[in-house]
Amino acid sequence: MAADPALILAIETSCDETAVAIARGTQEILVSEVASQIDLHAPYGGVVPELASRNHNTTLRPLIDVALRNAGLTIADIDAVAATSGPGLASSLLIGDTTAKALALALEAPFYSINHMEGHLLSPFIGSETGVMSNLSLVVSGGHTMIVRVDGVADYEVLGSTRDDAAGEAFDKAGKMLGLPYPGGPVIDRRARDGDAKAFDFPRGMLHSGDYHFSFSGMKTAMSHRLAGLGDRWDPEDEGLLNDLCASFQAAIIDVLVKKTISATSATGASLVTVSGGVSCNSGLRTAMQTAAEDQGFQLLLATPSHSTDNAAMIAYAAACRIEAGIAPSSLDTDIDPNLKLTA
Length: 344
Ligand code: KG4
Ligand code: ZN
Known about the structure:
alpha/beta, Nucleotidyltransferase, domain 5, 2 domains, 5-stranded mixed beta sheet, 11 helices, 10 strands, 42% helix, 19% strand, globular, binds 5'-O-[(R)-(carboxyoxy)(hydroxy)phosphoryl]adenosine
């Protein structure tokens, strides 16, 4: 008789979310707890690393207890422990990584050091019956924008990435310029639904570069020019104007993301496309990708919104996939790496 799948406790503290999840192998996420720090960082308009790590330190231990309680388990039931080891903020990564290692040591359980981007990359498959299949993946988060060819678990080829700002970063910077609350991405998404995407012209950076790389740093310059161009007509209280700016800005980002994904899909002959990372929550992007899938005839798997923004379920799932694929656990000497790459 096959052994029961391992119960994996995973910790994610790479940025400003403290998250703990427990998975039963690749089959089931039993609990996924996320303690958001957004309110803490909002007054500063961005994540303050020192505040983030202090907060992880006080939040993580009780959150592990909450996760265990909600799963109806005790710590002794846990078979394996995983934590995000990078990329991210060093002082934040250290809290989750050292806590997970201490637990693994105390439980005499294997430890899995997981790349945050691998977590995002595999997250669309959480809950799928097939498990991870070959696909062309668009990963769009606050820190990264990548097109990756996935041939299986731990078998990745990064085809393109951003040369400067990530898509989420562009959303957040534009939000700040428009005087919107942090993080700008979800607010711009909501406002864009009521705005005219053709009202303003925004650049489609590197759209015709002939590769799968991105550049979004020009978006903030463009936004500042649009605001300057409005002169006295720019009024942050003008809902209609704000919505039009949001819709036009968002449309430009989506246009580049979707068109580059389509060309990488045809070039690689991929029949399945996945989209993950915080920006994959964007309703305009989801709709545009669905339309592209219908037009181009590829299958589309979008991460669910709760698995798109930072969470530990995706870290537990990546660890479970590695265990299932027979990949050895990590040494407790494996260090965190704020600049960890997806591939060597
Ligand atoms: O994946 P994530 O939680 O953290 C990183 O790994 O960076 O992504 C956070 C990013 C933020 O930039 C946030 O503004 C963006 O995802 N985001 C969105 C939406 N929801 C979150 N961007 C556009 N539209 C959204 N609905
Ligand atoms: Zn992330």
